[in-house]
Amino acid sequence: MEEVQKKGMSRGCLVALIVAGALLLLIVVIAVTCYVKKDDLAKWGVTSLVTKVKTDLAKTPVTGVDTVKFDALADKFLARFNAEKLDFQKLNTLMLTVQRLSTTKTLDSTKVSALTTAITEYYPDLESSESAAPQGGGAVLQDTGAAKTH
């Protein structure tokens, strides 16, 4: 008797292709959504970290940081930051500081000063109204290799 050859793919291969296609489509949809919503994602990230720093400072004050001034500065910054359109050139420096702060577990005056400096660089007119930087001026967090940009 003659053997009849099957035409087409096996069911397992067909299922694997359908699943791979669905995953690829899902990844494309997520990438497009993130690109379209990049302003909202950036605002959410910065707002979350500044709010976390405010909460941490309220729970455990850091020596050399005026928490009242920092709270006032953070409130003014968040109000403007969430209301206005983002300036992506200035946002780069702010986001680098936010990324570096998000990888640390404890706050010290240097980290708070770096955030204060990044905030006042984003909105220079906030610097004259409130300054929560500790004595010695504003510090900039050094890159520890945790957040690389290309």
Mean pLDDT: 81
What series of H and E elements makes up the topology?
HHHHHH
| Secondary structure: number of strands | 0
Uncertain residue segments: 130-150
Q: What attributes characterize this protein structure?
A:
elongated; mainly alpha; 66% helix; disordered C terminus; 150 residues
Explain this structure to me?
By secondary structure, the protein is mostly helical. The protein has a domain of about 90 residues. It is built from six helices and no strands. Helix 2 runs antiparallel to helix 3. It is elongated and about 90 Å long.
Short description:
With 150 residues, this protein is mainly α.
Task: Give the SSE map.
Layout: H1 11-36, H2 38-59, H3 67-83, H4 88-102, H5 109-122, H6 125-129
